[in-house]
Every structure is written in C-alpha cells, then in structure tokens.
Amino acid sequence: MATQVTANAQRRSALFLQIAIALQTLTILLQAVSAGLLLASSYGETLHSVGARVMYGASMLYVLAAVLAWKPGGSSPRPIWHASGFLVLASVQVVPGIAHVPSVHLPLGVLMFGLSVLALARR
User: Fold this and answer.
1) What's the mean pLDDT in 16-45?
2) Gap between the Cα atoms of 80 and 47, Å rounded
C-alpha cells in the first residue's frame, strides 16, 4: 500500500515537472513572438515586458517542480540543476534586455528556447 502511494506521488510529481517545462517552453516562445511585435507595434514593448515576468515565474515554477519531483522518491537531483540553470539564464537575460543590447539578449533567448525544448523532449 505504501509503495502504491509513493508511486502515485512520483507520477504526479513527474507530471507536474513536465507541465512546468512545457509552460516555460511556451512562455519563451511567446517572448520571441512579442519581440517581433516590439519591432512592429506600439504595444509590443508592454507585451514583451509582461511576458518577461511571466517567463521568469515559469522558470521559478520549474525549479519548484524539480524539487518536488526529486523529494518524494529520492530520484536524481539532476532536474534541479537543469531548472536552476534556466533560472540563472533567465536572470542573466534580464540585464542585456533592460540595457537594450540585442546582440546578447537575442542569442541568449534562442539558447534558452533550444535548451527548454530539449528538456521537454527528454521528459
């Protein structure tokens, strides 16, 4: 009985982790779309700014989901390192974004999207 409860908890935690990665990937993709709108419309800057906060929140949710997935079953802490790395990248991404340095901001965003898709494919 106890192993069934633990197995159910592990499945729920793994599902939560997969949803968090998917949400992060989606928010990064929407950031690329809003960056295009930033160049083409007056409301693009607002959308990109709000999207940045949502994407940062999604990265924090990914860290939480990774910790929760690790804790119940005592599995590998590797997802925690991946999630923490994304949070660091998101934090670094803010600096050139605020400073309006697209030569660093854009490639870093592409890197984040690629890594997020890779993390999603691995789950």
Assistant:
1) 94
2) 29
